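Exam revision sheet. Question 4 asks you to relate a sequence to its structure. Input first:
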Amino acid sequence: METLRPMIPYLIPVLLLDLGLLAFALRDLSRRNRVNGPKWFWVLIIVLVQIIGPIAYFVAGRGDE
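Answer key, structure tokens:
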């Protein structure tokens, strides 16, 4: 635990960014009628693949409107 303590100020912004992207991506996914692929697949990607999952959704998963 003592080795992790100096890194906490650097980890907090990363965790906040991850939670923000997660919430924004899930909100956007729930409001869209059309996405590239099944919605359940994108929920799994967004939730399980940390920071990369929401970014992948915004790049490749959003359907054209």
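Marking note for examiners. DSSP finds three helices and no strands in the chain.
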